[in-house]
Design a protein that fits this description.
Helices cover 34% and strands 22% of the residues. The longest helix has 18 residues. It is elongated and about 90 Å long. It folds into three domains: 190 residues, Histidine kinase-like ATPase, C-terminal domain (Heat Shock Protein 90, 2-Layer Sandwich); 106 residues, Ribosomal Protein S5, domain 2, CATH 3.30.230; 229 residues, MutL, C-terminal domain, regulatory subdomain (Ribosomal Protein S8, Chain: A, domain 1). Helix 2 packs across helix 5, helix 7 packs antiparallel against helix 15 and helix 14 crosses helix 19. By secondary structure, it is α+β, with helices and mostly antiparallel strands.
Length: 611
C-alpha cells in the first residue's frame, strides 16, 4: 500500500510555478470588487465628485448605465499630472499620510474606482481646475492614453461606455436595463439624502428622473421620500457623549412592504449596516406589525476613529469599536422619539388625496354602501351583517372611506362537533376572535391574518381559473409614485392586468388606476401600488413568473383583508371560522405567520398549575 501511494505521488504533474499576474489581469480581478454593476460605477464616481467639493452633480444613464454613464460636477477638478496619476491603482488624494487610514473623513480613499472601471470599460475623463486649462485622458480595457489638452467647464466630466466589454462573461450577469437603472437611481437617492446641500440631477434614457436642488436636510428627506412620509414623520434628535443621532422616522401606522426605505447615514456615508438595521428593528418591533417595515432617514455622527469603514468592498457595512454602545444608544433614541411606554396615541397619517384624470371635483363624501364595503367578504364566502339603513352612494365615490360598523346580531348557535374551530365567544382587542371548540379547547384567531389567507386563496383560485375579476372605478384614480416605482409597475402591467389591476401611465412618476380586483372591496390604491412596486423590486426578473405573481397576490390579499381594530358581529366571526375550516393553508397567513392558536384542556390546566 505504501509503495502504491508513493507511485501515485510520483505520477502527479509538477505544481505550476508561482508568478505575478499581468497588470491588466490584476486590474480586471480587482474591478470585480468595485464594479459589480452600473450602480456601482455611479456610486463610486458620484462619491468622488462629492469629495471634490461639488455643489452640483449631473448623472446621465443610457441603457440602464450598461451602454453609457456620464457624471459631471463643478468640483475642484484635477491638473494634468493629477489626471495622469488618477487612473493608476492605489493612487489617491484622500489619505495624506498612512496614519489616517483609521480616521477616514471622505467617501472614497482606496484609489481603485477609476483604474477598475477603466479595466473593464471605455473610460474618458475631462477635468479643469479653476483658472487653469482643461485636460483629458482615456482608458480602454486597461490601456491608458496620454493626457491631452481639451475644452471643458470647471470641474470634472467622466464618461463610461460599454461596461464589461473587456470581460463579456461579466456582462452576461447583468439584469435588464430597467432593473440596472433602478439600482443606479437608488444609489443616487441615498447619496442625495446624505448630502442635502448638493444639487443632484439624474436623467435616464433622455427622461429626467431626479432633480433635487440644494435643501435643508429635513426638506431633502421630504423631497426624496415624498409628502406621505413627511405627513407621518417624527423628528429624532439625541445627543450622547460620543454619538449623535438625528433625522426623521415615520409613525408606526406608516410602514412599507420591504426595508427599501430605511435610509441610514453614518458620517455622511450611506450604509446598509446590519448593526444599525437591527437597532431600528428592535426599537420598533412592539409597534410595527410583523411583516411590515418602518420607514426612516437616520443620521448617526460618530468619531471617525471609532468606526472602521474599510470592512466591505462597497463600504456599505461598518465595524464599530463599541458596537453594543452604538446599538443601545440608537434603540434608546428611537424608542424615545416614538414614545414607547409613554402612552402616546399615534394618529394614523391622512391618506394622500387622489385626483381624477380631469378637473372634476368630488362632492362631499357620503356613507359607503354596505354592499360594496362587504364585497371582499362576500366573494370569499363570508356574509356580513347588514347595518342600519343609510343613504346609498356609488362605490367609486366611496374610495378611501372606512365602511360603517355593522349592527349587532343575536348570539350565534353553538357550533356542531365537526367544526374544529368551534363557535365564536367574542372579540379581544378588536383584533382576535375568541372561540370555543367542541372539545372544550380555546381558540384565538387573528382576524386580519385569517382573512388575508382567505382572500389570498380566493384571488389565487380566480387567477388559475382564467384571471382575477376586476371592477372598474367610477372615476380613475391617479397615484403619484417615484419615477422608478411607476416604471416598474408599468413594465409589469400585463401581469397585473391578469390580477385584476388595470393601470396606465399618467406622466412622469404617476400611474392611472382604471380598475382593481373586485374581491378586494374598496382599498386605497396608493398604498397598494407602493407595496406592489416594492414587491416587484424584491422579486427580480430571474424569479419564476409564478413566484412573482404569487407574491403579488399575497400583497393584494393583505390590502383587501379585514384589519385589526375592526369590530365584528358574532355572525361575522362564525362565518370567518367556517371559511377557515374550508380553505387550504388556512393555518398561516400569506406571510407565513400563524392565523390561530389553540389551547386544549390539558394546556389550560398546566397554565393554571392544575397538573
Amino acid at each position: 500500500m505504501a509503495l502504491s501511494s508513493a507511485a501515485n505521488r510520483m505520477s502527479l504533474p509538477p505544481a505550476p510555478a508561482i508568478r505575478i499576474l499581468p497588470e491588466t489581469t490584476a486590474n480586471r480581478i480587482a474591478a470585480g470588487e468595485v464594479v459589480e454593476r452600473p450602480a456601482a460605477v455611479v456610486k463610486e464616481l458620484v462619491e468622488n465628485a462629492l469629495d471634490a467639493g461639488a455643489t452640483r452633480i449631473g448623472i446621465t444613464l443610457e441603457g440602464g448605465g450598461i451602454d453609457r454613464v456620464v457624471i459631471e460636477d463643478d468640483g475642484c477638478g484635477m491638473s494634468a499630472s493629477d489626471l495622469d496619476m488618477a487612473v493608476e491603482r492605489h493612487a489617491t488624494s484622500k489619505l495624506a499620510e498612512e496614519g489616517l487610514l483609521f480616521h477616514i473623513a471622505t467617501l472614497g480613499f482606496r484609489g481603485e474606482a477609476l483604474p477598475s472601471i477603466g479595466a473593464v470599460a471605455r473610460l474618458g475623463i475631462t477635468s479643469r481646475q479653476p483658472g487653469a486649462d482643461a485636460h483629458a485622458i482615456t482608458v480602454e480595457g486597461g490601456r491608458k492614453s496620454a493626457v491631452t489638452p481639451a475644452s471643458g467647464a470647471e470641474g470634472t466630466r467622466i464618461e463610461v461606455r460599454d461596461l464589461f466589454f473587456a470581460v463579456p462573461a461579466r456582462r452576461k450577469f447583468l439584469k435588464t436595463p430597467r432593473s440596472e437603472a433602478d439600482h443606479a437611481i437608488e444609489a443616487v437617492r441615498r447619496l442625495a439624502l446624505a448630502w442635502p446641500q448638493v444639487a443632484f440631477r439624474l436623467e435616464n434614457d433622455g427622461r429626467e428622473v431626479l432633480n433635487l436642488p440644494p435643501a435643508a436636510r429635513d426638506d431633502r428627506i421630504r423631497q426624496v421620500l415624498g409628502p406621505d412620509f413627511a405627513a407621518a414623520a417624527l423628528p429624532i434628535e439625541s445627543v450622547g457623549e460620543t454619538f449623535q443621532l438625528t433625522g426623521l422616522i415615520a409613525q408606526p401606522a406608516y410602514t412599507r412592504a420591504t426595508s427599501a426605505e430605511q435610509h441610514l447615514v453614518v458620517n455622511r456615508r450611506p450604509v446598509k449596516d446590519p448593526v444599525l438595521r437591527t437597532a431600528l428593528r428592535v426599537a420598533t418591533r412592539e409597534l410595527v406589525t410583523a411583516g411590515r417595515y418602518p420607514v426612516a432617514a437616520l443620521y448617526l455622527e460618530i468619531d471617525p476613529e471609532a468606526v472602521d469603514v474599510n470592512v466591505h468592498p462597497m463600504k456599505t457595512e461598518l465595524r464599530f469599536r463599541e458596537e453594543a454602545a452604538v446599538r443601545g444608544f440608537m434603540i434608546s433614541a428611537l424608542k424615545k422619539a416614538l414614545g414607547v411606554g409613554a402612552g402616546i396615541a399615534f394618529s394614523t397619517p391622512a391618506r394622500p388625496a387622489w385626483r381624477p384624470a380631469s378637473g372634476w371635483k368630488p362632492p362631499p363624501p357620503a356613507p359607503l354602501s354596505h354592499a360594496f364595503a362587504n364585497q371582499g367578504f362576500a366573494e370569499a364566502g363570508l356574509a356580513l351583517a347588514p347595518p342600519p339603513a343609510a343613504p346609498q352612494t356609488s362605490p367609486g365615490l366611496g374610495l378611501g372611506f372606512a365602511p360603517p360598523r355593522p349592527a349587532p346580531l343575536p348570539e350565534a348557535p353553538p357550533a356542531p362537533p365537526e367544526h374544529p374551530l368551534g363557535r365564536a365567544l367574542g372579540q379581544v382587542l378588536e383584533t382576535y376572535i375568541l372561540a370555543e371548540a367542541s372539545d372544550g379547547a380555546l381558540v384565538l384567531v387573528d382576524q386580519h391574518a385569517a382573512h388575508e389567507r382567505l382572500t389570498h386563496e380566493a384571488l389565487r383560485t380566480q387567477y388559475l381559473d382564467g384571471g382575477v375579476r376586476a371592477q372598474a372605478l367610477l372615476l380613475p384614480a391617479v397615484v403619484d409614485l417615484p419615477a422608478s416605482a411607476a416604471a416598474r409597475l408599468l413594465d409589469a402591467a400585463p401581469e397585473l392586468a391578469r390580477l385584476g389591476l388595470d393601470i396606465d401611465g399618467f406622466g412622469a412618476g404617476a400611474v392611472l388606476v382604471r380598475a382593481m380586483p373586485a374581491l378586494l372591496g374598496n382599498p386605497d390604491p396608493a398604498p397598494l401600488l407602493r407595496d406592489l412596486a416594492e414587491e416587484l423590486a424584491e422579486t427580480s426578473e430571474s424569479t419564476a413568473l409564478d413566484a412573482r405573481l404569487d407574491a403579488a397576490i399575497a400583497r393584494l390579499a393583505c390590502h383587501g383583508s379585514v384589519r385589526a381594530g375592526r369590530r365584528l358581529a358574532p355572525a361575522e366571526m362564525d362565518a370567518l371560522l367556517r371559511q377557515m375550516e374550508a380553505t387550504p393553508r388556512a393555518a398561516t397567513c400569506s406571510h407565513g405567520r400563524p392565523t390561530f392558536l389553540k389551547l386544549g384542556p390539558a394546556e389550560l390546566e398546566k397554565l393554571f398549575g392544575r397538573r
